[in-house]
Protein 1
Amino acid sequence: MTRDEPQEKAQQIDAQRQDDQPGVEEEMEPSAEFIREDYRGSAKLEGKTAIVTGGDSGIGRAAALHFAREGADVAVVYLDEHADAERTAERIEAEGQESLLLDGDVRDGAFCQAAVEEVIDTFDDINVLVNNAAQQVVTTDLTEISDEQWKETFATNIHGYFYMTRAVLPYLGEGDTIINTTSVNAFVGSGGLVDYSSTKGAIAGFTRSLSNQVVPEGIRVNQVAPGPIWTPLIPATIGDHDPEDVADFGADVPMGRPGQPAEIGPAYVYLASEDSSYMSGQTIHLNGGTVLNG
C-alpha cells in the first residue's frame, strides 16, 4: 500500500437495508466487531456501575463490553431490540460482570427516571453514564424534513441525554463521569443529515456547559465524536434511503473505510477511568483521519 492509497476494508460491505430504526445487529452483513480478542482489561473500572443508553448494539454495545472487561457492572438501556440486548447482556456476563436490561424510550423523562431508580435498586450506585441512543433520517432537501421528523430527532438525540443526565446526576460524586456520544457531523456538517447534525452540535454545547457546572463537584463530562462507524443504524438509515450507498459507507474519509465499534470502545474506557482525571468538557475525535478546522 502506498501512502496515497486508502486502507483496505477489513470486510466488504454490500448494498443492504433494514426497515426500522435503530436497526438490528443480527441482520447486518458483515457483522460488526465490538471488542478485539486481544483487548486486555486491567481493572480500570473495577467495582463501578455504568449505564449505557443504546447499549444493545453498535457503539453502545462496544462501550458496554469494554466496561465489563475492565470490571464494571453495566445497565443497558435500549428501545425494543430485545434479541440484540440479550446478546449484549450475555457477553457482559461472560466477562464476569452483572448486567441489567432496561427497555424503554429515552424521549420519555419518566422512563429515564424510573430506569435510573432501578439501577440504584439493583447495584446501589452509579459511576458512569454514557448517553449514546440516537436516530437519524437521511433527507437531502430541508423542505422535506417534516415537523414530526425534526421533533423526534431532537427528542431522541438531545432531550434523551438531558432526561438521563438529570435523573443520574443526584447519584454521582467525586470521580464519576458522564460521556456523551456526539458525531463528526457536529463539526463538519452533513447535507443529508441537517436535523441529525444539528442535534449533535447541541450535544457538544450540552457537554461543555454541563462540564463547567459539575466539575467543582469532581464530576467529569466529556464526549466522543465518531466518524463513519459500522453499526445497525447505517443499513437502517442510509440503506433505507439508498441501499447502494451502504456499500460506499466510509469511503470518503482519509482511511478509506468505516470504523468498527471495537475501535471506539477504548475511548469510552479512557473517559470513564482515572486515566482521564485531568480532562473535562473535551472531545475525542475518532473519525478515520478527517482533519477538522478550528
Protein 2
Amino acid sequence: MNSVRNFSYWEHQAFFGPADVAIIGAGLVGLTAALYLRERRPNWRIVVLERGALPAGASTKNAGFACFGSVSELMEQEQRGDLQAVVAARWQGLRRLRELLGDEALDYRPVGGYELFRDGPDDALAADCTARIGHFNDLLGPIIGTRDIFRPVPGVGRRVGLAGVGTVIENTQEGSLDAGRMVRTLLARAWAADVPVLTGCAVTGLEAAATSGPVRLHLANGIALEAGQILLATNAFAPELFPALPVVPGRGQVLVTEPLPGRRLPGTFHYDHGYTYFRQLPDHRILLGGGRHLDFAAEATTVPGLTDTVLAYLENLLHEVITPGLRPRIDFRWSGVMGFGPALAPMLDWVQPGVLAAVRCNGMGVALGAGLGWQAAQKLATVVH
C-alpha cells in the first residue's frame, strides 16, 4: 500500500497541513531557529522535518566541546579572513545557547581547554603557538571580556598522566556540554512551543511556485507539504537539494572507552591543529575523536562509517599518550558529518525565492548553531505572509 494513502485526515491536518515556515533539519540550527521564530511570530504555523529518527548530521554526534578555537587552529584561520568576527560569532553563539537552554539542561561545565604538543615532533609548532599567545589574547580579549584567555601551563601533561607531552597551552574560557541532553531539551522545547518535529520525513525535492506563493516540499513518504518559507538547516547535506551550494562534508569519527575511574583528566583536550580531540566524560569514560586530516578526500562524505586508518590512529593515541600502560575496552564507535566551505563564516543566504539556507558551520556547530538559528529566525520573521 502506498504509505501516503494510509495517513488519516487528522494526520494531514495536524502535521502536514500548510505551514508558514517549514524547517528542514532538526539539528541545533533548525531547532533554535524554530524556537526563536516562535518568539517573533507566535501565530505562525511552523514545522520541522527530519530525515532520521534523530538528527542525522553532527548535533547529537559531536564531542560536546564548547570551544571557539585552539591557538594552532586560530593561527591557520587568521590567514583565511576576519578572525575577530568569526570568533565573536562563536563566542556569542555559545552564550546564546546557554541563555536559551540553561547550563543545567546542557550540563555545561566551564572546565577549560588544553592544547597538547608532543615532545620532539611538535616542538616547532609548540614554539610558534607559545609565541603567539600574547597576540591572540590581545586580539580576542575585547570579544571574550578578558585578556587571560590563553596561557602556558608547564608540566600539566605529566600531572594528569599523559605520556610524551611537553608544551600545553590552556584556554581558560573553554567548556564542555552534553550534546544528547542539548538536543533532547531543544526537541522538548519545540513541541512545547507548538512546533511539531516530524522524524522520518526526508525531503526529496522542492518545487517553487511560478509566481509568488508557497513552496511545495516533496517528502519520501509521498506527502507534498506547502510552506510560505523554507529554512534549509541540513549543513553538509544541503547540496543534496541544492548541488551548487559551496558546502563540502567532513566526516568525524569518534570512540568512547569503558569507564576509567582511575584517570582524572581536568578539561577538554585538543591535538594536531585541532583535528584530534578528547575529554573524560562524567561517567569516567574517555571520548576521543577526529583524524579526518589523515585523508581529507575519503572523509569528505555524508555516508556514516568508520575506517581502519582513522580508528588505528585514534587507538594508537589513546594507548600511547592518553592511557599509557593501559588498553581500555572501546564500548562505542560512531561517526558524524560536519559541513565545511571556502569561508570561515557560516552561510546564511536565500538560495531561491522563499528558501533560506543556514549551513556550513566549519566544524564549529556547537559554538555557531544557536547564533545562526537566531539570525535565520530574524530573516524569516521579516517576511510578510
Protein 3
Amino acid sequence: MQAERYTIKNPADTWSVKKFWIKAFAVYALAEAIFLGATYFITYSQCQSCVLPVPFYLWQYLANLLLTALFWYGLTFFYKQALWKTITANMLIFFLYYFIYAGMLYAILNSGQEWLLGKPLQSRSFQYVVYNSWFDIGKYVVKLSAFYVLRFYAEYRKAASQRLQLAVINKDMQLNLLKQQLNPHFYFNTLNNLYGLSRNNHPKLPAALNQLYDIMQYVITDCNQHKVSLGQEINFLRSYIELEKLRYESDTIIEFDVKGETRDQQIIPLLLIQFVENAFKHGLKEKSKNDWMKVNTAIAGNELVFRVSNSNYSSLPTGGIGISSVKNILELQYQGKYELQMQQEDHCFSVTLKLSL
C-alpha cells in the first residue's frame, strides 16, 4: 500500500506571497507604461507621421501585460525542477511568448482598422513581422531576469520569516524545558523537607507551604505569559531560595539581596532560576561548613545586574541543558541587550548577567 503524502500550507503565508507578486506586477505595469509613453513622445517629436494612433499603443501595453503575467505564471511551475527541465521550459515558454505576440501583432497590422492603425498600411507578411520584432527578445530577457530576481528575493524573505518563526518556537520549547527541569527534583526535595517539618510540627511549616504554593502558581499559571513583571520573578526566586534553605544547616551562608525598585519592568519568566539552581546543585552539594552562596540583584531603571556567587565548583557548568537554554533565550530575546560572564577563582564560582529590560 502506497503512503499518501500531504502538504499543509499556511494561508497567511500564501496570501503574503500573492501580495508580493501583485505589488511586483504593479511595478512592472508602471514601468511598461512609462516605457511606451516615452517611446511614443520621442517618436512623435522626431517624426509625427511615424506614430500610430494611441489605441494601438494601448493595445500593445495590454498585450504585454497579459503575456508577461502568463509568462511569469508559467515559469513558477518549473522554478524548482531539475536544471534540464528548467532550461527546456524556458526555451519553450520563450518561443510561445515570442510567436504568440508576433501573431497578435500580425493580425492587428493586417486588420485594416483605421481607428487602430491610422492611415491604411501596406499588407505585411508574418515573416516580415517576425523579422522586425527582434527587439522584443531583449524585452523578454529583461522580463525573465526580473522574474528570477523577484523569485530569489521572495524565497529569501520566506526563509527569513521561517527562521524567525522557528526561533520563536525554539524559545517557547526551551522555556517549557526549563519549566519541566524545575519540577522533578525540586518538588521532590521540597515535599520531603515539608514532610520532616510536619512530623515535628515545625513553626516554619505554614510559611514553607505558602512559598510552595506561590512557586507552583508562578510556574504553572504566570509563566504561560510571554513576559512577567520583574517583581514576580524576584518573588519567585526568594520563595525558591527560602525553600531550598530547609535542606541545609542553619550556619550555612545563603543570602539573597535586592537593591533598587521594581516598577513596570518585564522579563522572560524563569530566566534567572537556572543560575540559582546550579549554585545549589554544584556549590552547596557537599553541605560542609565552608559552603556558601550569595545572590545579588541590582535594579536601576530598566537595567538589571544579577549575580550569583558560590563555593566549591570543581568546573564551570557551561554544558548543562538549562544554562544552554538560557543562553539561547538571551540571544533570541535580548540580542545586543545583555552581557553574561562566568568566572572561577579561589574555590569561588560566579555568574553575572547584565540585562537591559
